Amino acid sequence: MVAPLHPRQRLLMGPGPSTVPARILKAISSPTLGHLDPQYIGFMDETCEMIRQVYRTSNALSFPVSGTGMAGMETIMVNLVEPGDEAIVMVNGVFGGRMKDVLSRCGARVHSVEVPWGESFSRQHFADAVKEHPNAKLLAVVHAETSTGALQDLSEVGDIVHRAGMLLAVDAVTSIGGHELRVDDWGIDAIYSGTQKCLSCPPGLSPVSFSPRAIEVIEARKSPVQSWYLDVTMLKNYYTGAGGRAYHHTAPINMVYALREALSIVLEEGLDERVERHRQMHQRLRQGLESLGLKYIPEHSLHTLNCVSVPEGIDEAAVRKRLLDEYDIEIGGGLGVFAGKAWRIGLMGESASEKNILTLLAALEQCLQ
Ligand code: PLP
Question: Which parts of the chain fold into alpha helices (H)?
Answer without folding.
Answer: 22-28, 38-55, 69-80, 94-105, 123-132, 157-163, 212-219, 232-240, 253-269, 271-291, 316-327, 354-368
